[in-house]
Amino acid sequence: MDGESQAQRDARLRSLWERLDTKKKGTLDYEALKRGLGAVNHPLKDADGLIQDMLTACDIDRDGKISYDEFCRFCTATEKELWQLFQSIDQDRSGRLDKGELSSAFERAGVTVSKTRLDRFFSYIDKDRDGTIDFGEWRDFLLFIPTNEPGLSAVLSYYQNTTKLNSEGDVHLSDEAVQGLGYFLAGGLAGVTSRTATAPLDRLKVYLIAQTGSTKETVQAVKSAKPVSAAQHGVRTLWTACQDLWAAGGVRSLFAGNGLNVIKVMPESSVKFGAYEASKRAIAKLEGHDDPKRIKGSSSFVAGGIAGMIAQATVYPLDTLKFQMQCEIVKGGEHGTRLIWHTAKKMWARNGVVAFYKGLPMGLIGMFPYAAIDLGIFDTLKKRAIKRNRARNPSIKHDEDALPNNFSLALMGGFSGAFGASIVYPLNLLRTRLQSQGTFSHPRTYTGIVDVTRQTIQGEGVRGLFKGLTPNLLKVVPAVSITYVVYENSKKFLHLQ
Fold first, then answer.
1. To 5 degrees, how large is the angle CA 80–CA 84–CA 89?
2. What is the per-residue pLDDT for 151?
3. What residues does the EF-hand domain cover (predicted)?
4. pTM of the entire predicted model
5. Using an 8 Å Cβ cutoff, are 178 and 164 in contact?
6. Angle, in degrees to the nearest 10, between helices 30-39 and 6-20
7. Tell me: the pLDDT tens digits for 330-384?
8. Domains of the chain, with CATH numbers?
9. Is the dihedral of CA 392, 396, 400, 401 positive or negative?
10. Distance, CA of 236 to CA of 270 (rounded, Å)
């Protein structure tokens, strides 16, 4: 096979056996085989079930161990099957497989493979990166496939169920746990990137929410049908707020709380997206199928709401600490870690652990509709775009190849986030005031949800429920857009479904 002489083949198998038989006992039981696969860094090294399948396939006399003779027989039979499969794919008889030949072979075998997945499969086997796969690469990757007749369907299943690319480019085992961790990592990376980019706008929003002054001038301008005057008052308010923040500490003041944001956003975004994917999978099973892409539109909203509530509850204490710290910043006062530590001690002395959960019910009430609207609308828009792209180009056979480009994803994310944020903004304002009560910037205190609502409306009118909405919308569009673009591309990079 492939021009290899019998002597060369015997030497290759002997060398491989000696590397697997790390303790030189002459036989391999389950533990020895697992240890040997780890020594050669084989993709099966952690796949306990497949290792047992391989042991069973090799163990001819059923004594629970593999001898060198049994190993050679298994390798000989498997290599012969792999050679025949290789030749059936190699249509031009060049001794090398290209992507076109592999794609055609999968089609003939009735195996559905997207272009993206085919590219990944090809790159795993093409070790020398020359754009083709020779039999040596084909054989080395598939030699331990635990089946007597390794057809293309079995080959693809072996690849999909046992391999994953890690950060160093090595191939290792993939399972549901790794898949789940991938979603958490993708969500965390997306959250850190977007929140850092929009930190000054978030700081401005919190500052405006903390202000309890009347907005009578703006309201009167609106009532008098003077939109230009109303806009001028609004711009003047934003400009004055920016000046106040700058005076309190310059650039450092604009990014106050960003450290806490970065710390909390990794678990928050990770839990949010991970819980969203898990919720969709669970709902898919409840609907009688296992495909999260086929769940109903209403189910997407429910999954999004559940994910948002779980994420909110997870990081709520850090969120409260951030708001309290931002509202304690004064010109010439403490900043950074010292202020965070001082604020945390002050909160603990005031109410203990309860101080860190002020407004949690309001937060959960607001988070469910926001997350449901945000994630649900984004998912719906993405599905519509995929459907449209496939209709425009009938040659596209898989949803994975019909995903919209990054710009389109950014627009979808921005729209869904801005819409959701606007709908639930009054709830978020009330929750933020509960969290920041008793601070330098927001000295008011409240007995609960009803009290904060009453004081806000009595003192500032209904319009007071929307203080800070402008910078929030200015923040939401780029933040959500960046989040979804980074998340979707991270899923591609991590080979997630």
1. 145
2. 60
3. 8-43, 77-112, 113-148
4. 0.51
5. yes
6. 110
7. 666 777 788 889 889 989 998 898 889 888 888 888 777 887 788 788 888 888 8
8. 6-163 (1.10.238.10), 178-493 (1.50.40.10)
9. negative
10. 38
